[in-house]
Amino acid sequence: MRQLALGPRSRGQLERKLAERQAEPELIERVLDRFEEVRLVDDAAFAEVWVRSRHRSKGLARRALGHELQQKGVDREIAAEALEAIDGEDERAAALDLVRRRLRGRTVPGGASPEARAERDKVTRRLVGMLGRKGYGGGLAFAVVKEVLAEHEE
After folding, report:
1. Are residues 79 and 16 part of one domain?
2. Do 72 and 104 fall within a single domain?
């Protein structure tokens, strides 16, 4: 019960925690079934809130969110339903926002000099890497970074 008091938990998280405390597997199953009956545990609601919260606060892409839900023991089908709340446009908008925030107040050299190109390439690599770590695909990451850098130079 203490785990539930700390915040929403998935069935998988609670199952692991009870197993760590060496509870009998049959007891774990009965307790978690009862928790689901009385709606103390609802993986679908947990996944929906998790996806919305982490996408908004951390700017994570569907791929990263899916991985997190899998780590939390949420069933793939339930996770897929929750991830449907984020469409391609939401993901693109979040990526644009992340890159713009990262570049805020920073100057990126324009021009055709080798030094300016090298600096732009370095900034591009870092921004694409940041988006990649947040679960964005390479194509989207490069397109977004290119778009924001073009805005930034104007």
Report:
1. yes
2. no
